[in-house]
Please model this.
Amino acid sequence: MSIVALAASLASPIYADEIRLCNAWGINIAGIRDARELIPPPKQDPSSAEEFINSSVVEQIRHRLSYRYLPPVGDTAGEGFLVPGGGKQALENAWEVLAGKAKPLKQISAGDEASLIVFAYASGRSLRLDDVKHSDGEIVVAYHLNCNELMSSSAHFALIPLPTLGPGKIKLTMQRSADTGPEVVVTRMAKISAERLVSGSFTFKVTDKER
Model:
C-alpha cells in the first residue's frame, strides 16, 4: 500500500457495523417498516378529527410533528433521543417524551434494549434516511431532504433499534447531505433551515451491566 493510500485509510472512519434500516419502524420514511403495524386499528371508525388523532400513538406523534407545531424562525427542532424498549413499547415511550410526559434516556446498561428516535416536522421537505452506521463511540445517521411543493406534507419519524454497544459515551451524529428535488423547489425550500425541521445530534452513556 502506498503512503498516500495508507494515509487516506487512516483518515477515514472505520465503522464496525451498519444498522439495517429494514429493522427500524417509522412514519412516512421509505425503506423502513410502517409503525402503524405496531398499533391495532380502532374497533370503530372515529367520529371526529380529535377522536382520530387520539385513536393511536402513531396519529398522536404525526399530529405533534405537524406543520402547525413547526418551531418558529430561529429555533431548532430539538435533539433526537433514546427510549427504552423496542417496537410497540419504544413507540409508546417516544410519544411520552414528545408529549413532555417523560424524559429520554441519558444512560443505559450494556445489553439493554433501547431505540434511537429521529424525526422531522412536516414541511415541504421529506426526510430520507440514507444509512445508519456505528463505530466505537459514535452512531452516524446519514440523511437528506427531498423537496416537493407541499408545504404541509406529512411529518417523519424513525424508531431505530440500538445496536450492541460497549461501555462509554456515545454520540449520535445527524449527517446531512444535499437536498434532492427540482432545483427551483430546492432553492425555495432552503429558506427554512434543516435545523428547524430535523432532530439534532445528541449523546448518551452506556455503562457496564450490573451483575
Q: What stands out?
A: The CA atoms of residues 73 and 182 lie 24 Å apart.
